[in-house]
Amino acid sequence: LFRSDPAHDWPINTIQVGGRPVRVSLNNGGAWIADEATNSVVRIERKTRAIISRIDVGMKPKWIYSIDNGDVFVALADKAKIVRIDPALNRVFGPAIELESMPYVS
Q1: CA triplet 31, 46, 4: central angle to 5 degrees?
Q2: Could you give the CA distance from residue 26 to residue 64 in angstroms, rounded to a whole number?
Q3: Distance from the CA of 100 to the CA of which of 10, 79, 82, 86 falls in 20 to 30 A?
């Protein structure tokens, strides 16, 4: 993951998250990165730009969506399921939400 200088369009800060990052969601608390290689979500704190948690979601994450001051939702690959991450606990919270089919992601 890298932060770029908007005036010059080049990286000014790089954070190695490891694995195979496939999607990123940003909110006022930081960045949430879906990592297919480790079946997890990596949480990066906004102010320090440090990895503060790696949360196991049980399967490869397909997409990720975070809400400011709220939960993070992760769709799991090959299953029509969404899990919810509670940022206060840094873990999946509650049972997976079952869907009839996988949501379309462009």
Answers
A1: 75
A2: 10
A3: 86
| Cβ 19 vs Cβ 38: under 8 Å | yes
Residue type present at position 38: T
**Token pair for residue 103?**
């949501």
Residue pLDDT tens, the chain, 106 long: 666 667 777 666 778 888 999 999 999 888 999 999 999 999 999 888 899 999 999 999 989 999 988 899 999 987 789 999 999 999 999 888 888 766 655 5
- Cα–Cα distance for residue pair 17/71, rounded to 1 Å: 21
What is the C-alpha separation between 22 and 81, in angstroms, rounded? 18
Report the amino acid identity of residue 60. K
pTM for this predicted structure: 0.83
